[in-house]
Amino acid sequence: MNKEVKFHPLNFLMIALGTATYAFGFVNFNMVNHLAEGGVSGITLIFHALFKINPAYTQILLNIPLFILGVKIFGKRGMIYTIHGTVCLSIFIWLFQRMSMSIDLAHDTLIAALLAGIFAGIGGGIVFRFGGTTGGGDIIGRYFEQKKGFALGQTLFVFDILVLTLSLSYIDIQHMMYTVIASFVFSQVVAVVQNGGYTVRGMLIISSKYAAISQKITDEIGRGATYLKAEGVYSGQDTKVIYVVLSPIQVQAVKGILAEIDPDAFVSIINVHEVIGSGFTYTEDLNL
User: Fold this and answer.
1) Each residue of 166-189: pLDDT tens digit?
2) Most buried among 15, 38, 99, 111, using CB within 10 Å?
C-alpha cells in the first residue's frame, strides 16, 4: 500500500507569503535599479533586458522542464510545494509590476542592493522553512548531487556565477558589484529566517581532564554533555571526547572553563544548523 502523502494548508499559505516577499524585492529593487540576480531568476532578468520578455512568463517557462526533472528528486510532496512556489512567484512578479508603487531611495544603489538582499532572504527563508522551493537552481543542484555526486553548494555556486557572468551583457561592473552585495545579504538573511534566528555551536573537547571539565560545564552553565569514546592514533590509548551543544555566549563561558582547568585542551567548534531534543526549544519541521 502506498503511503499517504499529506499536505497542510499552512505550508501553502506560508510559501505563497514567502514568494510574495521575494517578488516584491525582485520587482522594486532588482528590476528598478538594474541589479542582476543568480539562478533562474537571474536568467529571467537577462531575457527581460535583452528581449523585453516579462520575467513573470520566463520564470514559468524555464522551470517547466525542470519540474519534469525534479519529480524523481523531490518526491510528490516536495514537487507539489515546488510547483506551488514557482507559480506563486510568477504571479506575484506579474502583480507587483502592475502596481503603481514608487520607493524613493534617492538613487542610492547600495541601499537598493541591501533591500534586494533582505527581501529575497526573508522570502526565500520562509519558502525553504515550510518545505518549498522556487524551482530553478535548487532542482539543478539536487539533480547533480544525486546523479553525478557533486556537492549541492558547489553546483549552485557555479550556476550562480555563470548566470551573473552572463548578466554582464546588460549591466556594468558597478551594478554587478552591487549585485554581489545583494547576494551576500541574501545568503545571510535566508539562513537566519530558515532557522528561525536560532544559532547554536557544537564543541568537541579532547582533554585528559574530561571529567572535571564536563562537571564544570554541567554545574556552571547548566548544559548537558556527552562522552564519545575515542582512541589516540599516536598513543593508541583510549580516551573520552566531550561533545556539548551551546549558544554562542555559552561557548565563551566554556572557553573560560578550559583556560582554568586545561589550557592545552584540543577544541573544535562547529556550526550546528538544527537541534531537536530536551533543553532546546526550536525544532524545524518541514512536514507541518
Assistant:
1) 999 999 999 999 999 999 999 889
2) 15
